[in-house]
Queue: 2 jobs
Job 1
Amino acid sequence: MGMTKLSFKHLISVDQIKKEDINKILFSAEKYSQKVKNKVRSNSECSGYILATLFFEPSTRTRFSFESAMLRLGGQIITLEHGFFSSVKKGESLSDMSHVVSKYADLIVIRHPKMGSAMEFSKNSDVPVINGGDGANEHPTQSLADIYTIYEEKNRLDNLTIGVLGDLKYSRTVYSLLRLIALYPNNKIVLISHPLVNMQKDRKTKLEKMGCKIVETQSLEEVKKDLDILYVTRVQRERFTKESEFEEVKNKYCIDPKILEGTKKDLTIMHALPRVDEISVEVDKLPQAKYFDQAQNAVFVRMALLDLMKDG
Ligand code: NCD
C-alpha cells in the first residue's frame, strides 16, 4: 500500500470514497496512532500548512480533533467557531466566503446546518474542502473514524451484523457509515428505531442496491443476540420540526447493562458522541464500550486525511 494520493480532492460525500482510499487512510491512521501513543512529537508532515475550521453548528469532537490532528502534524490552524457571527451575518454568501478563505488556508473544514452546504462551498475553493457535517446529510470523516474503529475491533469490514439504533432519520453519521460498510461483502444491517425516525426509504433502497441485507425493527431485544456491532445515536433534537415528535421519540431506548445481557461477548458498542441519555454511564466501564476510543481514533484518521489531502 503506497502513500500515494486519494482519489478525491475535496471530501464532501462518502460516495466519493473508494476501497483503495479507505486502505490508504486506515494504513496512515494506524501509523499515526502508533506515533501518538508512543508520544512521538516530531511530526512535521503539515509544517507550513494552515487549516481553517469553519463551524456554523455546535461541535466539540469534530473541530477539536481536526485541530488537534493539524497541530500534531506540525501545521497551524485558523478557526471560526461561531460561523453565523462572521460576515455571513452581514449577508455574505457561502460561495463568496469560500473564494476568500481558500486564499487564507491550505485546507478547510466546514460544518453547516444546510444540506449541500459543503458542496456549495467547495465549488469556489482551490484548496481541499472537507465536509465536517452538512445538516442531516453527510459526515464522511466521522464515518472513516468509525470504519477505523470497526477494523481495529473486528479485524475485518465484511461478514458483520451491525445494529444501528436511535435516530436513523436525522443522524448523518449513520447513513454515511452504512454506505462505507456497503462497499464490503456480506454485511447485514439491523435498523432499530422508533417509527417516527425510521431511515428514509430511498436511503434504505440505496443500501440494498449496494448489496446490504437490511432488517428493520423497533425491538433491540429481538435482535440483540446476533449483533457484532451496536452503533447508538443521539436523537437529533435540533433537526425535528415538531417538538412533540421529539418528546415522543427521545426516551425510547437506553442502553444499560441489563439490556446487554444475552449479547455477544465481543459485541462492540459505538456512538459518535455526544451522548445524552441513550447509553447509561454504567456501560462506560464494560469492555464492549468503545465510544471513547472511537473519539480518539478520529484524531488519527483526521491526521491521515490532512496528510493525504494537503496538496489537493
Ligand atoms: C455527530 C454529528 O455531529 O453528527 N457528532 C460528531 O460529529 N461526533 C453526532 C451527533 O451530533 O449526534
Job 2
Amino acid sequence: MGKKALYPGSFDPVTYGHINIIKRASKIFSEVTIAVIENPEKKPVFSREKRSKILKESCRNFSGIKVDTYDGLTVEYAKSISASVIIRGLRSVSDFEGEMQMAVMNKKMRKNLDTIFLMTDPEYAHISSSLVKEVAKYGGELSHFVPDASEAALQSKFHDENFDC
Ligand code: ADP
C-alpha cells in the first residue's frame, strides 16, 4: 500500500495555489487528506464548514483526495489517519522560516512523521487567500486566482447582503 499524506491549512478560501499543490501531491501519494484547521489568529472569513464545502466542491474531480477537519495537534491527527507525511506549500523565502520552525517542532513530537515541501509552480507564487479576499472586497476579477466554488463564496460574502457563512 502507498503512503498517505496530510495537507493541513486554513484554506480561507482554497485558491489555485493550493489546488496546484493538491494535484501534485496526489500524484506522489496514494491518498491525500486535506484538513481544514481553525487558526483563530488568522481570523477566517468563512466558517470551517464552509471552507470544507468549498474544498470538496473544488476537488470533486480528483481521485485519492479526502477533506476533513481536526482540532488539536497536527501530529496526533496525522497518526489517527495513518499519514506518514505532512505536505506544505512554499511560495517564497518568507514562507520558509515559519514553515521550518513548525516542521522541526512536529518532527520532535513524532519522529517518524516527515514534512515534505512542494515549491509552488511559479505562475501561482503570487496567490494567497488573503490577497484574494482583498481583490474580492473591491470587486476585482477572481477567476484567475480561485476555483469557481471559492469565487461564488467570495462574491456572496462581499457583495450579497444576505450572506450566510
Ligand atoms: P495556513 O494558515 O496553514 O498557512 P493556508 O491556507 O494559508 O494555511 O496555506 C496552506 C498551505 O498552502 C501552506 O503550506 C501554504 O504555504 C500553502 N500555500 C498557500 N498558497 C500557496 C500558493 N499560492 N502556492 C503554493 N502553496 C501555497
